[in-house]
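Case 238 in the screening queue. Each case pairs one protein sequence with one candidate compound; here the compound is zinc ion. For every case the pipeline is the same: read the inputs, emit a complex structure as tokens, and attach any notable structural observations.

Predict complex for case 238.
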Amino acid sequence: MNSTVNDQLRRLIELQQIDSKILNKKCMMDEIPSKISEAEVPLKITQADLDKMKQSHESLEKKRRDKERQLEDINEKIKKLKARTAEIKTNKEYQAHLREIESAEKERYAIEDEILVAMEALDVSSNEVKAAEAKVISEKEKVDILKRKLDEETSEAKKELTMLKEKRAWIVDALDRDMYSQYMILFESGNGLAVTEARGEICQGCNMNIPPQLFVEIKKNEEIIYCPQCYRILYYSP
Ligand SMILES: [Zn+2]
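Case 238 output:
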């Protein structure tokens, strides 16, 4: 009888090892979407920065175009004013006319200054846009590299899971039916741990001390022995 129990215990230990591996793989695969979205945070931030920079660049461009249009208008105005000079009869009219030209020219200088300022700002902003674009590309590359790595890990994990499940089926087949049902109940209630080591008189499932007399029995690995505290199946690993 002892040898049979021993066999069952050995299978239970193997089953637990396989189930622990399966749990780990599933856990790892479950974490993938959150790993990806975590890695995408810096990319989203840099993308948003780039969008903002592009917007401000566009508004600077618009301002420059507006000012250039204003410059054309004022130049046209000055040209027309100057063309009218010959028609002026009185001195008084002539003085007023000159003042009008002078004020239009002042306006033109101011517009030209504003265009220069806008062009300098555009220079700075286009450099910023370029830098932000490079940053977006490099952040995207980081995400792509991670995605490729996770894809490889996923397909590897899927292969391993298939193998583990095959192995699991063999062990379950060789296991006593009742023993297996008990194992599954313990597996559910014990958060994926039904069979655990008794190391140094301590149950590795619940960290409680095992009575010395019971530990002597566990050390033989001949019987199915349950932890008095957490009811997990205990074994001894020399
Ligand atoms: Zn325990």
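Case 238 observations:
- The pocket of zinc ion is lined by residues 203, 205-206, 208, 227, 229-230, 232 (CB under 6 Å).
- The chain has a mean pLDDT of 95.
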